[in-house]
Predict the 3D structure of the following.
Amino acid sequence: MSRALTGLCLLLSVVFSPGAWALNNGLGEPPGSVDRQTPYAAAKGFSDAVHKGNYELAAHYLDLDYLPLAQQKGEGARLAQRLKYVLDHKLPLGAIANLSKEPEGDPENPRFDQIDALSVGDTLYPIRLARVRVNGGEQVWVFSEATVRSIEPLYAEYGPLVGEVLPPVFFDKPVLGLELWQWLGLLATGVLAVLLSVALERFTLALLDRLARWTRITWDDALVSAGKGPLRLLYFALLGAVGTALLLLPPTAKFLATHLFTSLLIVSVAWFVLRFLRVTAQVVQQSVTKESKDPSRARGLHTQLAVLRSVFEAATYIIAAALLLMQFETVRNVGVSLLASAGIAGLVIGLAAQKSISSLLAGIQLSITQPIRIGDQVVVENEFGTVEEITLTYVVVRVWDERRLVIPIPQFLDKPFQNWSKGGKSMLGPVRLLVDFTTDMDALRVELRRILENEGKALWDGRVATVVVEDVLDRTLQVRVLVSAEPGNLFDIRALVREKMMAYLRARPEWLPTTRTEPRPALQPPVGEQPQPPPPATPRA
């Protein structure tokens, strides 16, 4: 009995010893620089450690308790390095900044805080930080065990292609945040991008030049030659962006590379636009000079082309500079200011041609918002018709009597009108009748149903057919007959119901409105009361 009690005490002392509940016992005690108090601090500390090449330190931010103690140190450093490649490749820039900066984590789920979820085939792997308990009841945040277990399949899908080919020396010691294989990759990317851009430019220009020779116009021949230079820069930017994407650069290097190649792309497009304006102006000027015998016309055209070319070149410079500056957060306000100045210049020009430009803008707005469409049935200017044509300045409405109503477009934006086709496929139409007080309403309802199911069968949609007393006038009742039909049939069914209901009332003249002249009987006094004599007549002066 004493031996069993001693063995139980030893077991309990092992299980409940402070080291039994420690996190990652195989790694030893974490250094004091390891901050795992919040999800953001843990993810930021892991990112800083792996990008400095200190993978042993980064292993303290992983939950490695599922591994044997003897394997946690070496395997933890290897898994930290592989997780770095996955996060650098797939996570968007600034994804870590969205994590909670509170020790309690996400209020909706205090046990986890998820950065993102990555898919491999049909399997989705969440990238999470979990809150775990260590010595003394302290709780820290580390990458969850499920996330650490998913590092291998994620690395096989998103890791570097040369990860299993190159020796470890290419991955061990980063310089300025980049490993040796990444520096060599950047060098190879730059050299290959230059060579391939030159080759692709020559091939593309040769192909376009051959196609241009098949046409009779000379404008395309000059345009092909204008592409020399901008096309090379365009290819270099595209090839460089593709090459750097394969190198799995860390966030800072990826930011610089992305903005560099984006800037080159903007410059190449702006360069080609300037070449395009110059070539087009020259071709048009030469063509008009050869064909026109009037020198004044050639001079006038030359002046117009020079002014237009200057305007478009200035706009190109401003837009390109604004796009370049808007890439960077610190100088984004300058780019916005440039675009604002271009807007002010456009406003001055717009004031000079306010009427014409307002009509054009109204036409564009009408085509986007579409309060009317071709084929809609509308009521405008007290005329019912169908929209037949919409231009940038006016709308043509075909009126019911085959007239054409031409209406300026601003009128559809400034004044109310009825669009019978804007809502559903059915509309309600009232028919009002004046009848005698003795009219049988139920008989009118039965007659309405008979009319709609027989004579109006082709017009009625079968949805609404009601007869109600709308008002009581001094001599008649005002009855409202309400029927439903498609917008194109509404007028016809109202006319049909009005005609048939009047025929039904004419067959019953006692239900038609009449002027009553019969005497009203004298009122009898209540039982037991004597009739009062009439008051004496008042003598007149």
Notes: The chain has a mean pLDDT of 75. The first helix runs from residue 2 to 15. The chain has 16 helices and eleven strands.
